[in-house]
Amino acid sequence: MVDWDVIEAIWRFGDKSNVLLAREHGISEGAIRKRAKRERWEKGQKGGSRQPIPPTKERQAPVVAPPPGDKPLMEMTIDVAGRLLDELSAVTANIGQLEELIYDDTEDDRDGRRRAALLKAVSLNTRSMTLKTLQQTLEAAQAAIETPTNGKKAQKAAAAKEVAAAGKFGASRPPLHSVK
Q: What is the distance between the alpha carbons of residues 141 and 145, in angstroms, rounded to a whole number?
């Protein structure tokens, strides 16, 4: 997937040619030229679609984790994932300010590599992948909490006892694996 925000930042502030920039990002030089013309990119100017957000004076208080104590590992995992989701939400809410800080901080850089890396770190793609990873972590932790702690052998033995208790003409269990 092409990250046009990074390409635009490098195009505006970097000293790379369109050919080199296209080669690095796996697209054609014409695609960069057409996009720059269509969106009216200008060298040395910040993106036209971004509106500067005035910085706020108040800082958010840091989130302090409760002491681990006797909490089981899975509950701690869910707590950490929840705090990370809160942090991701705060980053997303202040993305305009972060981008402005990146532009200001990298203004005197010789090339756009550091700026591109910083913008990529806060890009939508990176934030969505973080969200996806957190979702998978929460689902795995929730599944681990809900499933019995018995191993596979114990589960198979319990299933065999259940079938044996139902007798010869008892209701059968549904199949373990279904083929679609």
A: 6
Instruction: Report d(CA 151, CA 69) in Å as an integer.
Output: 27
Angle at 78 between CA 75 and CA 80, to 5 degrees: 110
Asked if residue 28 lies in contact with residue 22, where contact means CB atoms within 8 angstroms, the answer is yes
Structure tokens at 104: 């200001």
- Map residue 109 onto helix, strand or coil: coil
Residue-wise pLDDT for 67-113, tens only, equals 555 557 777 777 888 888 888 888 888 888 888 888 888 888 888 89
Reported pTM: 0.41
What whole-number distance in Å separates Cα of residue 29 and Cα of residue 16? 12
Indicate the residue type of 40: R
Would you say 131 and 88 are in contact if contact means Cβ atoms under 8 Å apart?
yes
Q: What is the DSSP string of 72-97?
A: -HHHHHHHHHHHHHHHHHHHHHTHHH
| CA–CA dist 21, 14 (Å, integer) | 10
- Size (the chain), residues: 180
pLDDT digits over 133-165, tens only? 888 888 887 777 676 666 778 878 888 887 777
Instruction: Retrieve residue 85's tokens.
Output: 């989701």
Q: CA quadruple 71, 74, 80, 85: dihedral positive or negative?
A: negative
